[in-house]
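Below is how a single chain appears once it has passed through the pipeline. First comes the sequence as given, then the structure the pipeline wrote out for it. We keep one example in the README because the format questions we get most often are answered faster by looking than by reading.
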Amino acid sequence: MAKTKTQRKPATPKRKKKTSNSNYIFKWIMLIIIAVALIIFATGNITINSEKQHTEAQFDDLTSVATAPQTPEHLVSYSAMTVSFNPKLHIPNWVSWELTRQETEGTLPRKDRFLCDDLVPGCPDHWDYSYSGYDRGHMAPAADMKWSEKAMEESFLLTNICPQAKSLNSGTWKKLEDKCRTWAQIDSAIIIVCGPIVTDPIKEYIGDSRVAVPQRFFKAIISPYANTPRGIGFIMPNAKVPGGMQAAAVTIDSIEAVTGHDLFHALPDDLEATLESQCRFHTWSTLRPRQQ
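Resulting structure:
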């Protein structure tokens, strides 16, 4: 019996157990290395996409605008902008959108195909502008939409367009659009609301649809996520702007007083009051994009 017990206790299993433990330790080390690598990769990916995730979570409310009371309105939410369309005047009351640093890096070509949005009451046709002497002026510019083919196409819908004098559309208005893209690159994201001032008397109409020709336009910009949050507004005549952007700079409060709209009302009251009372053009104009 003793001999039989001795035969049932070979030394080999103990050696196998030691080898197995070594393998387990090696596997755990490899798993830890892989986990650390994945964490590093994920952290880098989060850093790359953080500004977009950040804005997607918070900009929906901040781009909302309370339109002036008794103003005709058909509200449309497109993929990259929200439009309050005026079916009586056949132009937008306002257009709002967010612009991130990543979006300014889009490379899609400009479409240049203006279309009526048949789902929106009162939307004019592109030929209403033909031979009118006015440009089809974008509110949300096509150059802000180069990151998405759908957003680019929607920017050419006539719900986003107003009759603009060429001297404005290709002059100070365009320069301000370019500046907005620079500011988005600097602060990672900004929010923009712009449109015609429909409270001004309408003195001219164009096309068979009788599209109203605005006398003035406004643009309001906030950078709520910058280290020092900023806000500024602009009011420009539908003509060449004497003095350029600096002369057109106003507070957002001034825009609200003229239009009757309540812009950025989703901001906390104290932040809204601060941003809408600012008109520090030099603070904005001296900002420069980060060096890559």
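The chain has two domains: 2-46, 63-285.

See the next section for the split statistics.
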